[in-house]
Each structure stands twice: as structure tokens, then as C-alpha cells.
UniProtKB/TrEMBL annotation:
<feature type="domain" description="ABC transmembrane type-1">
    <location>
        <begin position="95"/>
        <end position="296"/>
    </location>
</feature>
<keyword id="KW-1133">Transmembrane helix</keyword>
<feature type="transmembrane region" description="Helical">
    <location>
        <begin position="242"/>
        <end position="266"/>
    </location>
</feature>
<protein>
    <submittedName>
        <fullName>ABC transporter permease</fullName>
    </submittedName>
</protein>
<feature type="transmembrane region" description="Helical">
    <location>
        <begin position="97"/>
        <end position="119"/>
    </location>
</feature>
<keyword id="KW-0813">Transport</keyword>
<keyword id="KW-0812">Transmembrane</keyword>
<comment type="similarity">
    <text>Belongs to the binding-protein-dependent transport system permease family.</text>
</comment>
<keyword id="KW-1003">Cell membrane</keyword>
<dbReference type="InterPro" id="IPR035906">
    <property type="entry name" value="MetI-like_sf"/>
</dbReference>
<feature type="transmembrane region" description="Helical">
    <location>
        <begin position="131"/>
        <end position="157"/>
    </location>
</feature>
<dbReference type="Pfam" id="PF00528">
    <property type="entry name" value="BPD_transp_1"/>
</dbReference>
<dbReference type="GO" id="GO:0005886">
    <property type="term" value="C:plasma membrane"/>
</dbReference>
<dbReference type="InterPro" id="IPR000515">
    <property type="entry name" value="MetI-like"/>
</dbReference>
<feature type="transmembrane region" description="Helical">
    <location>
        <begin position="12"/>
        <end position="32"/>
    </location>
</feature>
<keyword id="KW-0472">Membrane</keyword>
<dbReference type="GO" id="GO:0071916">
    <property type="term" value="F:dipeptide transmembrane transporter activity"/>
</dbReference>
Length: 308
């Protein structure tokens, strides 16, 4: 049944990817004439017409769509008009930096959120619980770009402990990862705390207490697993946002990831590179959502029946 469920979710993911391809094609088609964007303003009309013909822009819309999608599925987005190399090659060169930053930020936020959530759920309403609630609310409230600038000012400029920008080792990832993980840490810790507190009030927890199990063991072994679905849901959502929306942090810290490349492509109206960036991010987000669905099935087999 789990295999059937996985195949069904994979089919849904493929449909979503096709929808993304359609949206990307329509949006790019409406941005403007690609031939005009690729040529300088004073280019002769004959050069413009020849370029349109070579790009197939005079063909019917449906024919251009089929040709474009066929190229995308084979990894062919054309050459970047900015750098003159295959657009997908530029994206793949930036992909490891984006994945590294997202992985570190997710590890920091998820670990910190579970620690805060477990500590709060162990003694709800206590001073520790209130203090941790304030910390989680601060994480939700503080803007990422402001936090990133403050981290640079304090740790890089004043203390000179860490580099300000770029990427040349793991020490360069510390500040952007902290700035990126602070908001999800607040969100996940709130969900973890509320889910665990609710779980600790259920009858089976009282039965475990009657058997003599300690609160820490009950929290870690039983309550955390049963409260894991909302935590996994939000963690997957945050990971997708790391891959999709870390543009501001990458720009502030000059991080050589897909986000900063996407901004540069927009500034230069590099349509093939824009398409390659959107496609790559879409595939990663769909893969994250598919992985979350599989984790659902592992944590709660009832989800297989419900979602199928």
C-alpha cells in the first residue's frame, strides 16, 4: 500500500511540475520579445528579424511551447545571453552552495526548535516555558534582512570573528545560516510546543506515567513521534522556503547560490537563465514535498489511506 501511495504522490508531483512549466512559459512569453531583449537598442531591423527566425519566435505558440518543454525536459534551456554558456550549467554550478546553506539552516532551526519545544512541553506555564515562548516569538517577528545586517555588523565588523560575505569554507556559512534559520526556529518551536503539550494530555500518556516511565522518556520516545506530523509538515515547508526564498540572505552575504544568480538574471533580462533557475527551484521544492509525504506514511500509516 505504501508503494502505491508513493507512486500516486509521484504522479501528482509530475503534474505539478508540468503546471510549473506551463506557467514559466506563459510568463516568459509575456515579459517581452526575447529577440529585442537579447539585442542592443540600436541593432538593425534585419539582424532583429534574423534572430527571431533563428529562435523560432515566428512559429505558432503551441509549437514553441512543445519545443521549449521538450528542451527543458532534456536540460536544454538555451545559452545564457549574459555569459554565453548553457543556462542550466550556471544553475548547477550554484546548486551546491544553495543546498549547503539550506541544509545547515534546517539543521540549526530544527534542532533548536525541538530543544525549545521539549523544554516548554515538559513544564507548560513555567518561567522556562514563558522565556522560550518569548524567544520563539522573537524569531517569528524579526526580519531576516535586518538580522543578517546586525550579524554582519556585530560578529564580522566589530568582533572580526567571522567573514562578512562570499564562500570559501564552512565559516562563511555560519552567519547566513543563523540569519536564515531564526524565523523557522521560532515557528517550528511554537508548533512543537503546542503539539507536545496536547499530546502529553492524552490518556495513553497517563498510562505510561502509571507504568513508572520518566517524563523525559515519555516525551522523547512516545509523545515526540506522535506529535511529529505537524512538525514535519512545517519543517518541509521551511526547507522549501529556504530553497525558494533565500534570495535576500544570499544577496546580503554575497552567497553564490541560485537566489543571487536569479536576481542577476532578472537584472540582465537573461530569459534562458531565468527559466533554468525557476525550473531547478521548482524541482527541488517538489522533491521536498514528495519526501515529506513519504515521511507522513512512515510516522502515521493512516495518512496512506487518507491521502490515497
Amino acid at each position: 500500500m505504501i508503494l502505491r501511495y508513493a507512486l500516486r504522490r509521484l504522479a501528482y508531483s509530475a503534474l505539478v511540475l508540468i503546471g510549473v512549466l506551463v506557467v514559466v512559459f506563459v510568463v516568459v512569453d509575456q515579459i517581452g520579445d526575447p529577440a529585442r531583449l537579447m539585442l542592443p537598442p540600436n541593432a538593425p531591423e534585419s539582424v532583429y528579424l534574423a534572430l527571431r527566425e533563428s529562435l523560432g519566435l515566428d512559429d505558432p505558440l503551441w509549437e514553441r511551447f512543445v519545443r521549449s518543454v521538450g528542451g527543458w525536459l532534456h536540460g536544454d534551456f538555451g545559452d545564457s545571453t549574459w555569459q554565453g554558456v548553457p543556462a542550466l550549467q550556471l544553475v548547477l554550478e550554484r546548486l551546491p552552495a544553495t543546498l549547503l546553506l539550506a541544509a545547515i539552516a534546517l539543521a540549526v532551526s530544527l534542532t533548536g526548535a525541538l530543544v525549545l519545544g521539549l523544554a516548554s512541553a515538559r513544564r507548560p506555564g513555567s518561567l522556562v516555558d514563558r522565556l522560550l515562548t518569548v524567544i520563539s516569538l522573537a524569531g517569528v517577528s524579526i526580519a531576516e534582512f535586518w538580522l543578517g545586517l546586525m550579524l554582519i555588523l556585530f560578529f564580522a565588523v566589530q568582533l572580526r570573528w567571522l567573514p562578512t560575505s562570499g564562500f570559501n569554507g564552512l565559516q562563511y556559512a555560519i552567519l547566513p545560516a543563523i540569519a536564515l534559520s531564526f524565523r523557522p526556529l521560532g515557528r517550528i518551536s511554537q508548533i512543537a510546543r503546542s503539539s507536545l503539550v496536547e499530546e502529553m494530555r492524552k490518556p495513553y500518556i497517563k498510562a505510561l506515567r502509571a507504568k513508572g516511565l520518566t517524563e523525559n522518556r515519555i516525551l522523547r520516545r512516545s509523545a515526540l513521534k506522535n506529535a511529529g506530523i505537524p512538525i514535519v509538515t512545517l519543517a518541509g515547508d521551511e526547507l522549501a522556503s529556504f530553497l525558494n526564498g533565500a534570495v535576500v540572505i544570499e544577496v546580503i552575504f554575497a552567497w553564490p547560490g541560485i537566489g543571487s544568480l536569479f536576481i542577476q538574471a532578472i537584472e540582465r533580462r537573461d530569459l534562458p537563465l531565468i527559466e533554468a533557475c525557476v525550473f531547478a527551484v521548482s524541482v527541488m521544492v517538489i522533491a521536498v514535498n514528495f519526501a515529506v509525504d513519504l515521511i507522513y506514511a512512515r510516522l502515521d500509516p493512516r495518512a496512506v489511506v487518507y491521502k490515497s
